[in-house]
Amino acid sequence: xxxxxxxxxxxxxxxxxxxxxxxxxxxxxxxxxxxxxxxxxxxxxxxxxxxxxxxxxxxxxxxxxxxxxxxxxxxxxxxxxxxxxxxxxxxxxxxxxxxxxxxxxxxxxxxxxxxxxxxxxxxxxxxxxxxxxxxxxxxxxxxxxxxxxxxxxxxxxxxxxxxxxxxxxxxxxxxxxxxxxxxxxxxxxxxxxxxxxxxxxxxxxxxxxxxxxxxxxxxxxxxxxxxxxxxxxxxxxxxxxxxxxxxxxxxxxxxxxxxxxxxxxxxxxxxxxxxxxx
Length: 278
Description:
Layout: H1 2-5, H2 11-27, H3 30-51, H4 56-79, H5 82-103, H6 109-124, H7 133-171, H8 175-181, H9 187-202, H10 206-232, H11 238-248, H12 251-271
Protein name: DUF2232 domain-containing protein
Keywords: Membrane, Transmembrane, Transmembrane helix
Organism: Steroidobacter flavus
């Protein structure tokens, strides 16, 4: 089933396909989950190969999007800690980014040609962007790895959440909500994130800026968890929670909603008592 869903390629289908592998990892043996992730990855690879030239990036991307959630699902089964899986997902994405910047000779420049082609295509289609072309492309190229890593984190951990929710519906209804409402970066990662944001504001480092994007995405997850907790204790009406989810898929305001959730998550990480119950 997961392999059948993957050829559709839009993000929701990728999340669902990976979540099936997570569900298998949580309820059955890891070997079956590997087979499920491999099937989904092959299906997605076949579609990508039909549209673009093959390369090492294909294997890398498939590994992250399909085997990443599966391994996090296995970790969740072994430890029973959704929060640990969340922290490991964030740290893993940060390590991957650092590795990419260490290995690639020009991690920012690698995007310039692609962005110039995209700019030309938009111009031919009648889409005009105000401002200096070189400055805008340089700014976009500097943030591309960070944006891609943040999106990957959202896809990977989103699949973990969906798979864990499915498993709770089958085995222990209600347990997922309790776990998710306690999602938290923690003190150590909170300090690291705060320092990272300060350094990103004070320097022009593309690596630091990219890492900040990943931290930003993680804080948005915690902000959403805080919203669920507020609803559970009666401080937030169900309608507002529904509105948050609806606005998250309305492209003109998605970025603003994610920003608000990240700010909420940042505040929640520091202001919420560690011993507070769900």
